[in-house]
């Protein structure tokens, strides 16, 4: 790329993400970006990296977090709006030294035992915690996706959060406020993860990713990242995706790898594929409160399974039948064809 | 849709309404959840949009939809507008909220255009601590850097407080530790703290706090929460004793009509027949 | 509303848009917001108002513009990214004193005669013109929708546009740039039209609006407005909309009126309903270049038709057959149902 | 994917390539559109994403897709990514671009995340005027406040210039009025003007200008456009005379290989068989 590096900006030279040197990318058409989860984590997650895992209650990329644990990554900064079970597991496995988040809890079902030990008692070691509100996190992703130096939002005025998070700063508007006086507003800085993992219902082989139901902040988290891995319930033929291009939340040009991993969002859910495992959420508070139980759980379910397919098989067919969902099909729309 | 400033309850203390028979309705067979959601529902009269979490707020919104606010729409933090769930949802992102919904929108749109854009009339928030100005703490007990208890944090609470036209708080516990003179940490500040920080607030902050003892109310900038209404059998001194600051009492303190047979029937038969949240 | 008015901000007291005083709004459920185009324009467009008409090439709300002409509105500020044929017509009809836009031309088919006479020769009167780039306009709508005092964007550096448009200003980022030095960025102010008109394929009676194909900036233009009118090819039953909630681009809470107006986007198109009338685009440059022809065209096709239904009928069935499109149906997705 | 700085053309002037036979290929039966799109296509070698309008840029992108850049994706300002049109599109928003596309995204995402986010390798722009630094005017001829000719304005051109890694300009007219020492108005400034305004540019600005006389090239900040390659039969003095500033000539000035039989066949038979744009 002929751009003077002195004047580039934002996500350090985005062009490097697709120059083919990582061995997974384009040049030929159409690119087949499908890899295994093991390959994706090996290629895109390194010790010390900043890793975003997004999915708001729906489509949480749990299987990606488990593979990061299996491969023993260390010193990660994890960026995730709702730090929930998968984050507690990654903390317990010793992968994470820093957390950037806006909600630390086991959904509405209770507490995260490991997170509380780390934060309240530095047990077994301290956890650096960068705290935001939900919209603050969303705006950090938007700023990262759009190469903006900051993003303004009407939050934080009078809150104690700026006192513990120096990244929350103010900007004076260059326009007068409604009363003619000058106006201040808080801003957040961009976040540009080294890699973002999201889970989705389906994609084609080149990475055009379709999501329905709650779409959260996944598109922005992908666009903000230097590398992006989409984990899907299924890879579908190009024609399926192309029959409904508005359903494509993430275009292929933003995706570096596609991992096929059915049921990879468990214990969260995939709209139209399987329901949420609420019983597991309820059980996690007790498991995580007891460090020995938590360690045993990781040994059995993560380290003790070679990959997510084994984890799924270990849960058993009867279990999955309990999370099965019925049909509620969308009605087709006509995109039209020139006659 | 304006509610008289210090008279949010249905029955004025000096009125001729059947306070006695109403008090009898507040018999031991009315649970705390039934009481709180029935009273909260009445406060939603005429409102159009509510930003609510699962549990008491959605019970209140559902009851209001069937009674005092037939056009009420519940907007969920997850991005769901106009839900028509087949089952009682267990989370704000429950799959049953999505199927048959009128709209499911991305979170940047939900927080940016809907909430910050000023489309929410009432936001429901909970908290571990509240102070007299309606500032809320949901982050930590103790010092933030080494808390005695780490709580979930803001989630979207900071944004709901900053942007909803008003905020209702339903508190199961009314004691001096929760209703405190000084928050351990301010997660979600009301408009007075925002102004002091040089930021123009967009909403009125907390206007109603509903507990098992009564209703505290304030209308906007510069006002403290005052005791506005009591449940039958509760005295102003009871509430002052349970509040960690020197609670002011409204001149026209009223008595809250207990949940009516009709409200209870709707809650028990239509809203939550399996008593998932009406515990 | 109990909010102190001294501390409200942004679109002046948004809550007034739905207080029922205009006689069209909620209170009862479900609200039926359907009105005729005549009623919508009479209720929501007043002399001197700021009116946004959005739709990028696709779904241009032409019929709304024509009704504004029929009702003889004056002194309007028109906000529209691509000022094209409908804007030229509104200019020629004398409705518009100010234009806020980022592209003034007849698509790729030529010039706008009336606009050029106004701008180049103040003929018959001057036109105030506030000029932006496309993304500048988009960001103004986003800021308006999100009650932000300004919106930052990486445009305009070194351009002559800020020299002729004082609304383009700079803000210094409170974070150091990539080189550690301070960093400046241009910003645009919010736009909050008095009313926004958009055209869409379908909505339910309460205003949940579904769009497919190009979605442009319609959602932001609606959220930015004090009042919003959605013009649709058809009103559908609630179940149709609810079968695919992700297709709802504009939720009902943002919509004040729904106007059913089939073929209301002509000469632009509605994906899956009718194709673009490219011949009319090509003919417009010649029509509009000749003021007499243009006046005659307006007399015949706008003033000479009582409403859009007459305009459609006047074009004739054979004409519409020429714009008919075939079928290319989206494949249904499963939203799932709890068993 | 770096192209040698001043040697963008396929055939070096000093090489042993068949310049004579190539020159004969540039016979009168090759139209201006065929020439320009064939040459522009070669410059897209190895590129992944192109932001293009309808006409010459899409002809060039389509030909490149079939030859030197098989993975090339055209992104349209309207929000279409990965189009598979059944007919040649007439506008960047043509319905045939939407049906069967891989993705259709909202304009805020297209401009914010895709273009400003740095996902476009090459943006194609046209202009009424260009200067030696690759700054462009598409707004007015004359004074902006009372122009002799009002042109369409920026559209998304300002953003393409600011954010695409490089910009290619294809100009049908190469004369001193279009290639001017001083623009009447700068709609879309290159990085040098941006820097002078205190704004850090994100892309290199215009790196190639392709005309019927040859190719002008620059690589980035601080560089003027220089004459880099000539069509057969054209001299450097011809181009300097047609350019309104004192055009510098690259030391390794090369001669452009005329459109090959294979390129012409693809353009005529596959890309635009009905010759909608190959006029």
From TrEMBL, chains A, C:
Give the molecular function GO annotations: CoA-transferase activity
Where are the compositionally biased (Basic and acidic residues) regions? 13-31
Query: Which Pfam family is one of this chain's hits?
Result: CoA_trans
Per the record, which residues fall in region Disordered? 1-35
Keyword check for Signal, yes or no. Answer: no
Keyword Transcription regulation present in the record's keywords: the answer is no
Q: Which Gene3D superfamilies match?
A: 3.30.30.40, Glutaconate Coenzyme A-transferase (3.40.1080.10)
Keyword vocabulary terms for this entry? Transferase
Please give the PANTHER family that the UniProt record associates with this protein.
Answer: ACETATE COA-TRANSFERASE YDIF (PTHR43293), CHOLESTEROL RING-CLEAVING HYDROLASE IPDB SUBUNIT (PTHR43293:SF3)
Protein family per UniProt? Belongs to the 3-oxoacid CoA-transferase subunit B family.
Q: What name does UniProt use for this protein?
A: 3-oxoadipate--succinyl-CoA transferase
Protein species of origin: Streptomyces nanshensis
From TrEMBL, chains B, D:
Entry protein name: 3-oxoadipate--succinyl-CoA transferase
Q: Where is this region: Disordered?
A: 1-25
Protease as a keyword of this entry, yes or no, is: no
* Superkingdom of this protein's organism: Bacteria
| SUPFAM superfamilies, sorted | NagB/RpiA/CoA transferase-like
KW Nucleotide-binding (keyword) present: no
Q: Which family does it belong to?
A: Belongs to the 3-oxoacid CoA-transferase subunit B family.
Report the GO molecular function annotations. CoA-transferase activity
Database matches in Pfam families: CoA_trans
